[in-house]
Model the fold of this input.
Amino acid sequence: MPPSVAKRRTIIEPFKIKVVEPIRMTTREERIGYLERCGYNVFSLPADEVLIDFLTDSGTSAMSAEQWAAVMRGDESYAGSRSYYRFRDTVKSIFGLRHIIPTHQGRAAERILFSTVCRTGDVVPNNTHFDTTRANIEATGARAVDLPIPEGLVPSHRHPFKGNMDVERLGALIEEEGADRIPLVMLTVTNNTGGGQPVSMENIRAVAEVCRAHEIPLYIDACRFAENAYFIKLREDGYDDVPVREIVREMFSHADGCTMSAKKDGLSNIGGFLATNDEALAERERDLLILTEGFPTYGGLAGRDLEATAVGLEEVLEEDYLEYRLASVRYLGEHISSYGVPIMQPPGGHAIYIDAQAFLPHLTPLDLPGQALVAELFVEGGVRSVEIGTVMFGHRDPDSGEEIAASMELVRLAIPRRVYTQSHVDYVVEVIRAVWERRASIGGFRFTFQAPALRHFTARFEPLYPFSQEGGE
Done:
């Protein structure tokens, strides 16, 4: 049979398992007790009470043998360690940006960037801001504005690049607010809040052209840059034969800088960086870095973390790995959607997003359907996920105190990199299916406590219905 028509073999994990960590099995009754104790907020659960942890893909990757070897090479010199120079040179070679400032994670890079360039009354557009990005912008007195394309707000709609920014709305916003009130434009790749959906090269180029026309810097939130680049390779005309490394260089050739949490596509457990082509701005940012993070050649990181991240940034560009990564996420999405479970379509690069509003149509957004589904998945099978809806992105009206719902009610199942096998994912499929089959009996939740900012991390809730002690184990 010619290779062109040969049946495609199963995509396997492009690695072997060398070290294992036990999972503590729990009962349904125990899990109900755990939720009650922590105010029904899964962020407050001790990790050893969780069977499958899909809360986040941030900092939860399994490091490779080469990364662990690099840890042993870490130079812990306070100033000028060779580990910093390896890290810096790796970032420059991949992203092509000139000034590299290490930070302990992405939100530190965001805080330094926005504290340096934003002032009260400014506006920062993005395709969609994630939680810490929005919080760091608003902490300066500026306003974060989301400009997703319309297709990105319809979970069931299939579009190859639902993470794109609405370029027309960007132009209109600049005309309305004035370019002098917009210190920068950001693009998040992939678009985490919008379902882990990719941004096309065409869109990156178009946004950059608008920014250049108005002399506004363009920054990329680069957390999942490699996954986004591989989507471009798979879905965008003219890129199927282009190596991912070259696609990445082209993506960032349109940018003036970036922030990154290396806890995602850096395949590291901690770390990040801020990068810019503006030398004067870099000097101001380093001054702030010294104040709160550390000396510019370690930026809040140990030398061993700089080494591990330098290796991870190279490993994440391996196309065998990226093929497996996207296939493993797609596997979960296709299996649960085959049972009728409504998800953000098509599956994204790092997570599956269940449309909680469509899953629980009898609940209103203010009944917190996403939080209800998060609780049920944990009770049913010990699967920890996260609400991406009114709990995370809704807010109280400052004048009336009325709760304002988010634009979508999603539950994210973020898959840690190189951690779980297919049988783990099959188990998660079974858990989701069991909850889906009894969805009509699921009720809502309400807040009993919420902090004024980033409330989802520490909020407490109570259910408006009783949890059944009966269910699968």
Summary: The CA atoms of residues 380 and 472 lie 6 Å apart.
